[in-house]
Amino acid sequence: MSQSLHPMLNVAIKAARAAGSLINRASLDLDLLKISTKSPNDFVTEVDQKAEEVIIETLLGAYPGHGILAEESGRTHGAPDSEFVWIIDPLDGTTNFIHGFPYYAVSIALAYRDQVQQAVVYDPTRNDLFYASKGRGAYLNDKRIRVSKRTRMSDSLIGTGFPFRKGDNFKRYMKMFEDIMVNCAGVRRPGAAALDLCYVAAGYYDGFFETGLNPWDIAAGSLMITEAGGLIGNFTGESDFMYQREVMAGNPRIYAQMVGLLSKYTRVIADDAKPGLGAEPLDAADHDAKSLPDWSPEAALAKAEAEAQTPEARAAALKKRAVRIRKADVTPTDDDAR
What we know:
The chain is α+β, with helices and mostly antiparallel strands.
């Protein structure tokens, strides 16, 4: 690589490539895979587990004092009290993998005091390596990437992910899907959020939204987005998204317009919530959209950009908000891991 990379990023890249090699070998004979079901439509293979072991071994071999948050093993490895935490999804897109559909990736992020500092997403089927260090830009295979420049939602290609777990609110999602679909040029759902976020960073998508995601699904991709000039947050545009199980990303102009479309579906509870932005998901088919706040794209953009540029103001705003899902609540379980 032409540029000098941060040592921790280099270790993450080494771990991601090692896991990718293991995944590629396994993909040559999928009939031999041992597949377990965590919950309906949620699978784990021996490849997920072995890839995670390789990643953790590589990371802790270099940084034994760091913590680990991994999809399959949770926090059982590493130093539990470290300010450095590696957030790992060894195979994002397991369902695609076991069907031979070539859209899946290894995702590794390093957070320091809950702020993502290094990120790698590796697509072993294409040998595409996305990586980013905070403040140093986002790259794909040694080439700098930027979000798209489209300004109109009607011209935009939007990525998403469908609900798939038992108990997921599919009716609620279909309302969101319809609101986005009728306002954009097209919607895509390949099935691996880590790659989807990288595709926003690279400008392939203009925006992305999904519910029900865990930190290991989005941690690495979130840094790719911001380092590529994009915005990422929850459905009301705030930067508090990692543990909210709702995420939205895009270039600044499209992001603002998506806020206007999706804010009414947020799960975030705000002390100063406006009418229509309440805590509960909107399930009623006859919901009156006219009762919602009239957030113009311009106002939402100004708000999103201000939050993206002033971390202090962003942190102050978050302290005023009470949220339903707390970081402590997010641990891998049979019904929750992905």
